[in-house]
Amino acid sequence: MKAELLTLLIPSTQSFELSSTHHNKTTSEDINMLLSYSNLDKKEYSLLLMKYVDDKTSESTLFDELFDEVCEIFLKREVPKECGMIRKFLNTAIIECCVEKCVVCQGTGYLKTTDSIDKCPHCDGTGEFIYDDHVRSSIMGVKKNYFIKYKKEYESIIEKINAIENSALSKIGDT
Ligand SMILES: [Zn+2]
Prior knowledge:
Blueprint: H1 10-19, H2 24-38, H3 42-53, H4 57-75, H5 85-98, E1 110-112, E2 117-119, H6 133-140, H7 144-149, H8 151-171
Antiparallel strand pairs: 1-2
């Protein structure tokens, strides 16, 4: 998988973070050079770094880049009245798209207790976390009914993120 080659970008990214407080100018040029080299836009680049390199700082970049578009999705029908809800929907969608490994069994597919080894129910033994409406609403910290009310909007966010990933992978030749 060519996406794994992205780990090669890590040294430049780290030096970017370390020096960013002192040398903003030089380092943003570094990043721009990387972006233009791969022809990825900011969203595509952040998503790849977050998903395949586990670079946590990319998550907030991706979030910021997507937030306005996600607000528009909700504006088409109904904006949640509760404060901060759109942020929670977007955050959960980013997690669902980028965190595939089961966090309960650490991707092993089984859970060990003192006297038995059981298939992990959170990934059904596959090691890949299963996201359902119950899980999504608990990540968001809302009731399942509340989540379901906005499920169409949530699915549109997921589609949007998946489209960014597909586009990014095709640009680096990994489809
Ligand atoms: Zn599991």
